[in-house]
Prior knowledge:
Elements: H1 2-39, H2 50-61, H3 70-95, H4 104-144, E1 151-154, E2 157-160, H5 176-187, H6 196-219, H7 232-249, H8 251-261, H9 275-286, H10 295-315, H11 317-322
Antiparallel strand pairs: 1-2
Catalytic activity: L-glutamate(in) + H(+)(in) = L-glutamate(out) + H(+)(out)
Protein name: Mitochondrial glutamate carrier 1
Transmembrane segments: 299-322
Amino acid sequence: MAQQQQISLPAKLINGGIAGMVGVTCVFPIDLAKTRLQNQRSGQQLYKNMMDCLIKTVKSEGYFGMYRGAAVNLTLVTPEKAIKLAANDFFRHQLSKDGGRLTVLKEMLAGCCAGMCQVTITTPMEMLKIQLQDAGRLAAQQRVMPSVVSTLKMGGTSAVLSRSYNVSPQVMRVSAIQITKELLSTKGVTGLYRGLGATLMRDIPFSVVYFPLFAHLHQLGQHSSEDPSVPFYWSFMSGCLAGSIAAVTVSPCDVVKTRLQSLKKGANEETYNGVVDCVRKILKKEGPGAFLKGASCRALVIAPLFGIAQVVYFVGVGEFLLGYTPYNIYSA
């Protein structure tokens, strides 16, 4: 068992990385729509719904406008997904070392630990991604309200005057590298972890809900107790269902996280001094319904993302590449 576990760890990391890259590529445009819908305030709504947001994005920014921030996500999604999936397997194995069956409480604890490990990678990635995803909304808001926000015109393209960055006529858009350098020079490494509390508040409950739910749904697809293998389509459906339920459950936390991690603000948009201040201002100015902004988009992002991730993870691409026999800890 020790040898099997040792040789399977690199394979699990490969599985998680490939799963994340494939999944993110497929669902990123929906994630972009989710971010822009969550960030727009009442009375300043540029987009009616997800499809309206995607259509307007393509018209104003082109097809690749839907993939703003994708490079950041793809760069860091490999270690993020590898950590999340492999850490959950590791903690499940540790909690079942006594040979007994994992209880729901232990499964939730394993998911909680996996979520905490994942946040170390997720927080900087999410913050940089949000800045790039929301840039198009701010630019569009400028075009709609030119009298409220100053704009610069160069070649028919408007550049946003950011509160966080000095924009010169030569700089048309802020890149992830620029944002990272500015944060490191002004606030140090802690600047990259802005919104850490909100990210923990979202990702830990998500993992606590998702992993036990997925494990039980996945187990229902086993052929028999003697043959614990599960068809790939069942892994996909289990990942989709568990992911969508967990995503909607923590959607209010995701709204708070998105607002806190948005460095640039549009005209008359609120700034927040922490999780409590953010929740209080949203409730006061936008009502409880604001906490469900982008919930359907988030469910549409997470469902196929984790469905694809689980299929890749359980099919054993990493084991195949390394020449090992697939090792599935869920069947232990």
